[in-house]
Amino acid sequence: MSIVMPFALALAFGITALLYASVGFGGGSTYNALLVLAGTDYRILPAIALICNIIVVAGGSWRYAREGCVPWARLWPILLLSAPLAWLGGRIAIERDHFVLILGLSLLVAAILMLTQRESEGQGDHDPRWRWAAPLTGAGVGLLSGLVGIGGGIFLAPVLHLARWAPPRVIAGSASVFILINSLAGLAGQASKIGSDRIGDVAAYWPLVLGVLVGGQIGSLLGARILPPRLIRIATALLIAYVAIRLLLI
User: Fold this and answer.
1) Which residues, 6 or more positions from 12, have their beta carbon under 8 angstroms from its beta carbon?
2) What tens digit of pLDDT does each residue of 160-173 get?
3) Cα(231)–Cα(103) distance, rounded to whole angstroms?
4) Residue 13 burial (CB < 10 Å; 0-12/13-18/19+)?
């Protein structure tokens, strides 16, 4: 592997982290796509993406929790289903073509969900039709998260908004914690699958960590104080759609 490659990707990762962090997400789905397009060994790229995910959402999760925007009593049922399945997904070995197809399709769905997402105005969990929507979505997204190396917040958040599960800021805090827990569980599964002999291959991409660290901090600042969240969400969705189409056309 060329030493130049991680440095060439660091800027792209930083921009991705900036966009995702500004709307409360980690960016794992797009990190994966960028790594695939760069020709990275698909067996290690979910681990790289999950590490970057964790770095971006860890600070946001702490801030949301400190501000009381994480409803732990309502979030635990979702996490209890998603985390074990994220670990299981991380342990499942799949062929490269299947991996790219699943990743591309999931990105396309995520872009559509983000473009059509409507922010909830309040808490509307009284409707029994939505009682199990969030936990079941969390379970499915957890498995997908571990399998391809994403956090899954871009799938969970639109469902929570549609169900009027909580006010927008509380949903953002819940999605951030969801991404963090799923990423940790998925990384544990990926680590047990790739083995210690590939740790050096993963570590060679350390410049990407610096890229997402800087980009994530800038994105959090922009999302909180400067740019309208809706504008950032649309820009992020268009980026996701672009890389999804690129993957599906490989």
Assistant:
1) 34, 211
2) 877 778 887 788 88
3) 25
4) buried
